[in-house]
């Protein structure tokens, strides 16, 4: 028989503490009745002997130690799943906020998921065309990959993510088996509306499911929002065999919520006050992306995080980089120049692109072109530093050609319109056209036969 506990021992911020509890489980949900009327939901986050600490999703305002009773459900937080979730909007704990009915389904899944057995994983290989030259040519997104966007406050990361979702072309995906799952943590209302309107304008809203926790929603929901989103993605990918792109923003808000809860639990802090388990906690989110050998579907994850003070060594981007397979780094200087998307190509990379490019997937010159652009643009940075010391007029002729190459690469290759969708062949041809500013003798990363086939000998220099 289920017991009802009529008295709380203590309330600390969003946490309630009960003692004398029997048979409680970590992660179990609880129902809290306040003044015998309002019912709130909570989740057990710590058990010490017969003492239980639980976080309340709706917050503890109005709750005292004497006016609340608690019942334990014996189950973790679960959300109902069916194909009807497509086109719907939910809050951070899976409740509808679009004014429509709750999804009715016998399928209910624990939002914490289960770790994917590494042996059961299929190695990601298929190229995803995003329509962005900088990404497709230099840090190629692969189906089933985790590729985060490292940004900063005020930069165009939302526009970039929305355009990737609108333009993404996955081999084998059609309108019937392609879906987008969008999870937002601590975002402003206008950011949430921007994504919703972008998907609606692109005509993909009926293939999008959104889990939104806004900045004025309970901070506890931020911990659950990405897990609800990934649980929905796993259902669509591994039960309905769909190709799913998951966008999570902003992982920095998620980590700060984790830090606040850790502080309320009086845990010993680690770097910059974040809990010592931040790495393992982030991995329980990121590692849910991928493909299974026994399933046709896939989950490709694009988490967005804003780096505090644009510091890439901050614990959140630093640990994210360890777990994920590369990163797309946005540059504030390019953003201030009006370059969109302001992608800084030198610190950006995709660790899986080597297996998803080449004659079978993109074109035979792709790998060499990527290597040459990186090498040449790296030299541009050195020459720019030198020109600030001695002046551009005193540079050699070849150095001035490198500066021209850098300007064209940023202004015509990296930069593109907000509705411009380039094919991979257009991107590679444009890369060759810009590289042709440099003489053949400078192309030391290229095979001779590729230079003879693609180099623009008629390019004015």
TrEMBL record:
Residues 355-455 form the ATP synthase A/B type C-terminal domain. Residues 11-74 form the ATPase F1/V1/A1 complex alpha/beta subunit N-terminal domain. Residues 131-350 form the ATPase F1/V1/A1 complex alpha/beta subunit nucleotide-binding domain. InterPro entries: ATP-synt_VA_C (IPR055190), ATPase_a/bsu_AS (IPR020003), ATPase_F1/V1/A1_a/bsu_N (IPR004100), ATPase_F1/V1/A1_a/bsu_nucl-bd (IPR000194), P-loop_NTPase (IPR027417), V-ATPase_su_B/beta (IPR022879). Keywords: ATP synthesis, Hydrogen ion transport, Ion transport, Transport. One of its GO terms (biological process) is proton motive force-driven plasma membrane ATP synthesis. It holds the Pfam family ATP-synt_ab. It comes from the Bacteria. One of its GO terms (molecular function) is proton-transporting ATPase activity, rotational mechanism. Belongs to the ATPase alpha/beta chains family. Produces ATP from ADP in the presence of a proton gradient across the membrane. The V-type beta chain is a regulatory subunit. This is V-type ATP synthase beta chain.
